Each structure stands twice: as C-alpha cells, then as structure tokens.
Amino acid sequence: MNVHNSLISKYFPAIALLLLLFWQTPALSRSNPCISDNCVIINGGGENSMTRETARQDREEWNAQRDLRNKINKRKEKRFEEYENDIDNEDACLKNFNLNAYWEPKTKRCLDVNTGRPINPK
C-alpha cells in the first residue's frame, strides 16, 4: 500500500497537468470555429433593414424623451440649490454673533428668541 501512495504522490502533478490540457483543448478549438478558409459569414455583419429600422426608432424615442429628461434634471438642480441654500442659511444663523438668534428647522428660518421674528444673519 505504501508503494501505491508513493506512486500517486510522484505522478499526481503530471496527471493533473495532462487532465487540464485534455480538458482545455476541445474548449479552445470551439472558441474559434473559423480557422480554415471554409467559414461563411451570414448576414454581412448584422446590417439589414430591420436593424436600421430599430435603430431609427430608438433614436426617435431618445429624442422624444429629451425634453422630459431636461425637465427632470432642472427640477433636481432646483431642489439641490434649495437644499444648499437652506444649509448655508442655517450655518449663517448658527454662526451669527446675535445671541438671540436660533434656527427653526421646520420653517427653515433664522428667528429671534424673544420676538419670534425672522432675523437676517449676515
């Protein structure tokens, strides 16, 4: 039994290498079936009237949706600018030297503690 174990341990790497080579050879030959000159290209690269028509329809749809995309982008920019202005106003209110000023998060305004009137923090 010891002799069999030593033979297996000696020849195992060679057997594994041969097994991998025999396994990969058919896979590599299937990856490029056009090795010789007998390859036939069907459809001339994929250009036909149907692909051109679908491409034209896709362009029309893309152009038709351009206005909608622009409106959505403008709305997102407007919301971002409002959010950015609110953050800037809050920072200005909190850094204000007026001790009676505080930031009201619900109304997003800088108010006076005593009167409740808006303060312009600058």
How would you characterize this protein structure?
The longest helix has 30 residues, at 2-31. The protein has helices at residues 2-31, 49-64, 66-94, and strands at residues 101-104, 109-112. A hairpin with a 4-residue loop joins strand 1 and strand 2 (109-112). By secondary structure, it is mostly helical. The chain has a domain at 67-122. It has a two-stranded antiparallel sheet. It has three helices and two strands. It starts with a helix and ends in a 10-residue tail after the last strand. It is elongated.
Condensed summary:
The chain has 122 residues and is mostly helical. Helices cover 61% and strands 7% of the residues.
What is the β-strand count? 2
Low-confidence stretches: none
Specify the number of helices. 3
Which sequence of SSEs, written as H and E, runs from N to C? Answer: HHHEE
Spatial order of the strands forming the largest sheet: 1-2
Pfam families: DUF1283 (PF06932)
Protein name: UPF0482 protein Xsto_01993
Family: Belongs to the UPF0482 family.
InterPro entries: DUF1283
